[in-house]
Amino acid sequence: MEYRRLGSTGMYVSEIAYGNWITHGSQIESDAAIKCVKTAINEGITTFDTADVYAGTKAETVLGRALKGVRRESYELLTKVYFPTGNGKNDRGLSRKHIIESCNASLKRLQTDHIDLYQMHRFDFETPLEETLNAFDDLIRAGKVHYIGFSEWNASQIKAGLKIQDARGYNRFVSSQPQYSALWRVIESEIIPLSAKEGIGQIVWSPLAQGILSGKYQPGKKAPTGSRATDKARGAYMIKGWMRDEVLEAVQKLQPIAKDSGLTMSQLAIAWVLQNPHVSTAIIGASKPSQVRENAKASGVKLDPSIMKAIDAALGKIPETDAAKTQSPNPRP
């Protein structure tokens, strides 16, 4: 496993991060989830990503249990706040009330006294940005949070936040957590250039495009039993946009490229993301320890420029590049 600095900070993160978005507390049982976390640690993964909303707060609980007994200084813990964690009107969003209460609840579920990186899960159109940023700054000053970031904010929202932080002397953003893969490249034209200028690192999610880039889904065939596309709880909803024959046919063209590179399809997809020097870490999800071991091997892989061109040629016009696709709910859910 290799490691990279998170943006311009002095904190390092593993090139591969383990995330429990759809899996922990939902798709797989707790014991299996804990085995995946232990495998991640054995593979040198030190960065663990979750959020209060995942599996209705159960994902944080499972991760806290899995990391219990592991030396706290040996790993980086990332979580997020914004989406509903209850039925009340204040159980969501980025108000001071919800941020402080959610942070305290996350700390209890994760069985820790601090969060290494606390992120705004989406942009909140209903709360004054000053209120949100002030609350996050207070959490840093209280020692409950070390760094702050955001997920799926567009360029104008990032600029507005930085302007307030600089004017008020607040701690600045150090991370952006966007979706990014060979199929979803919407951050390349605006988010990455702005982030690079401002010292913000990219913590990218879904480098396998919900598993599509693993090659397991064949055009004209049913999804494999037990795969994300058959997970009616959440996975199937998230992946359905990619389950089109033209996409699956293009992805199958990557098979010989991966084989010639000595990589699996999943390793090729993750390695592609990591070729971007502005990516600090790529988040993987897994329901089996074997998947963790396979994906971890993508760390440190250097793809020749000719391979990168071959991937572009294979995918053609399929990849999404429109920066306007980076959106937050308005009003919030």
What does this structure look like?
With 333 residues, the protein is of the alpha/beta class. The chain has one domain (3-210, 264-303): TIM Barrel (Alpha-Beta Barrel), CATH 3.20.20.100. 37% of the residues lie in helices and 14% in strands. The protein has twelve helices and ten strands. The strands form two sheets. It has an eight-stranded parallel beta barrel, surrounded by five helices. Strands 1-2 form a two-stranded antiparallel ribbon. Helix 1 (30-42) packs across helix 2, helix 2 (58-67) packs across helix 3 (96-110) and helix 3 packs parallel to helix 4 (129-141). The longest helix is centred in the N-terminal third of the chain and has 15 residues, at 96-110. It starts with a strand and ends in an 18-residue tail after the last helix. The model has no long low-confidence stretch (mean pLDDT 93). InterPro entries: K_chnl_volt-dep_bsu_KCNAB-rel, NAD(P)_OxRdtase_dom_sf, NADP_OxRdtase_dom. Keywords: NADP, Oxidoreductase.
Would you summarize the structure shown here?
The protein is of the alpha/beta class and 333 residues long.
Order of helices and strands: EEEHEHEHEHEHEHEHHHHEHH
Give unreliable regions as ranges: none
- Supply the CATH superfamily name: NADP-dependent oxidoreductase domain
Count of helical regions: 12
Tell me the span between the first and last alpha carbons: 38 Å
CATH architecture classification name: Alpha-Beta Barrel
CATH class: Alpha Beta
Structural class, judged by helices and strands? alpha/beta
Measured by DSSP, the beta-strand proportion falls in 5-15%
Global outline: globular
Largest sheet: 8 strands, parallel, barrel
**How many structural domains can be distinguished in the coordinates?**
1
| CATH-defined fold name | TIM Barrel
Sequence of strands across the biggest β-sheet: 3-4-5-6-7-8-9-10
Report the average pLDDT across residues. 93
CA gyration radius, whole angstroms: 19 Å
Instruction: Count the beta strands.
Output: 10
Q: Estimate the helix proportion, in percent.
A: 25-40%
